[in-house]
Amino acid sequence: MIGFLYTLIAFVVAISVLVVVHEFGHYWVARRMGVKVLRFSLGFGKPLWMRRFGRDQTEWVIAAVPLGGYVKMLDEHEGKVAEKDLARAFNRQPTFKRVAIVVAGPLFNFLFAILAYSILNMTGIEGLRPVVGKVAESSLAQQAGFRKGDEFITIDGYPVQSWDQRRLYLYERALDRATVTFTVRDLNGLTQERALDLSSLSAADVGAGLLERQIGLFPPLPELEPVIGTLDERGAAALAGLQVGDRVTAIDGQPVKTWQDMVKTVSARPEVSLRLRVQRNGATQEFSVTPQSIESAGQRIGRIGVGVRIPELPAELRVMVRHAPLSALAEGVETTWRMSALTLKMLGKMLMLEVSTKTISGPLTIAQYAGASAQIGLDRFVMFLAVVSISLGVLNLLPIPVLDGGHLLIYLIEGIQRKPLSETALHWGQQIGIALLIALMALAFYNDFMRILY
């Protein structure tokens, strides 16, 4: 229950921050353009709190449903406007002003991400040393000549200071099916180059595990012991009575020495009752656990709803990457740009049916990530906010009616034909946009529920 509340609070905080950032962009530019703002609302539905401020007596509202927000401007399309205020109505503004006001929302999302990444880069981001701990057999990495102990120096000329630092760049190059050149320092201290050919990868291979699962490079992590670190309250293990901190020593009488031993056995036996012997507070206990069956990579595997206890990394494997202010800003701009471009590329691949729509996440998955990142630490939560802010900015620029990008599309069409669109065209465009958004949200919720249930 406490975990659920923590996740809920983290989710509400995340959504509130990002909505305020987005809508404040619209509000701030509208005010600078001389447009009268009637209301700034965080959330939808019945107002829980409202105050009026400023010479225009703008209503500042916190509403009952904290899943969005809006800025309401004076507009003849939404009601009668007094004669004295006509010049300040949104619909009376020249096209360049309306474009500026609409673009400001997504722009502020990108600026927020740049600011967040810049601050993190200045304060420092902890990571793993970029040293190869293992090269998978018959992998792309092995074919490229990587060896255990290789330390990354650059990737295509970009300096590498931590294991995860250039993942976004690798995602881009994998989508392009390019060859990437790593400059490494081997165990003998010699500087060498490794040419990594990514032409055999598909768009579906691009994801969080690209470097490890698809390329075959693993960092030098300590071996994971079979100790439960996290527990899904609805999982088979929790229902059977297992607890965080339990050490699994045997399954059906077979010794378990590593976490991978346990995963291998459980995965291979979905819907089959297993006898788990565990050590708890110095005592040995046994539990009967039946793994739930889920689909993964087209196969049915077993899952009992446990996560491994992550051991503390030795100091020699950890690095703290910090940048001077200007360098931090440059890194923030580059990361935001690459993330935005990658999001657009993945959306394009999805439309071309090269990437599964199962990758689309809804509010339930976002809430889970919000809670998990907040529990890790403030820096990870801020990083999570930056990623979602970029996604929100890109999504709002899509040319779908009712989104900011849809409004920009309308202004473009009106500019080309040199006259406003008809009320009928606007009405049908809005209906189509709403239908598309409902379909997208339905798909996102479906994916969320399928992840939770299976």
Order of strands, widest sheet: 6-5-7-8
Number of strands: 18
| SSE string | HEEHEEHEEHEEHEEHEEHEEEEEEHHHHH
Helix run count: 12
Mean pLDDT: 88
Instruction: Return residue spans where pLDDT drops below 50 for at least 5 consecutive residues.
Output: none
Kindly, what is the distance between the CA atoms of the first and last residues, rounded to a whole number of angstroms? Answer: 21 Å
Protein name: Zinc metalloprotease
Cofactor: Zn(2+)
Transmembrane segments: 6-29, 99-120, 381-413, 425-446
Family: Belongs to the peptidase M50B family.
How would you describe this structure to a colleague?
By secondary structure, this protein is α+β, with helices and mostly antiparallel strands. Among the domains are: 97-124 and 323-399 and 448-454, no CATH class; 127-221 and 313-321, Pdz3 Domain; 228-308, Roll (Pdz3 Domain), CATH 2.30.42.10. It is 43% helix and 23% strand. It has helices at residues 2-32, 95-123, 140-143, 167-175, 210-214, 236-240, 259-267, 325-351, 363-376, 378-396, 404-417, 423-453; strands at 37-53, 58-73, 125-128, 134-135, 151-155, 158-159, 179-185, 191-197, 217-218, 228-231, 247-251, 254-255, 274-280, 283-289, 292-296, 299-303, 306-308, 318-321. The strands form seven sheets. A four-stranded antiparallel β-sheet has the order 6-5-7-8. Strands 12-11-13-14 form a four-stranded antiparallel β-sheet. Strands 1-2 form a two-stranded antiparallel ribbon. The longest helix has 31 residues, at 2-32. Belongs to the peptidase M50B family. InterPro entries: PDZ (IPR001478), PDZ_6 (IPR041489), PDZ_sf (IPR036034), Pept_M50_Zn (IPR004387), Peptidase_M50 (IPR008915). Pfam families: PDZ_6 (PF17820), Peptidase_M50 (PF02163). The chain crosses the membrane at residues 6-29, 99-120, 381-413, 425-446.
